[in-house]
Amino acid sequence: MYVYIDESGDLGFSEKSSRFFIVAYMILDHPFEISKVMKRLLKKLHERKEYARRCNELKYSNSKHAVRQIVLEKICKCNIKIGFVVLDKAKVKPELKEKPTLLYNYVIVNHVMKNILPELTSSDKLYIIVDKSLRRINEEAFNKYAINKASWLMTIQWRQTEQIKLSNIEVRHENSQRNPCLQAVDFLAGACFHKYEHDNDCYYKIFEDKVTHFNYLWK
Description:
Blueprint: E1 2-9, E2 20-28, H1 32-47, H2 65-76, E3 81-88, H3 94-97, H4 100-116, E4 126-131, H5 136-157, E5 169-174, H6 180-197, H7 204-207, E6 211-217
Parallel strand pairs: 1-4, 3-6, 4-5
Antiparallel strand pairs: 1-2, 2-3
Helix pairs in contact: 1-2, 1-6, 4-5
């Protein structure tokens, strides 16, 4: 199983900060389908002069309304599952506001692991791929946190032995310019952020029937 993760919004708490922080994750068994769709779409958009040729990756923030629509429509036709974690920053406890790295790791990892681990067996492999935007020291901390969270859930909270082996879980940090699947999940994150931050679900509605996991923090 491959899980691609991206976020939208920020974890700041100033007046200029976003009200929401969104984590989107895309679950699939084979990355080839999404990769092919995104590469072909970028080529067509370049040929039609609907997307700047200087941009060698599809990004939600660089796209006009029509491009966002067509990208999301293409994505939702693929064999994928979609999950979201929506953090309402007004509900974050004061002590967590002072620990942005801990909050970041928790929001991204905790519910993703809780939702996908029960679907896996001891013979499965899990690849978690996130955008290579963290500094090296934070990458290592993130990876350790993810594995420790999986271990705690399986051995302490659930006390199950038939689930995926920890040695079969791999966390990768990759460049989105070279990974079309990360580009796809960037659009999902942007669309969900648009729904909550701007109270407009015009993009979210395109793929909402593909959303299999959803967590709103904290009610």
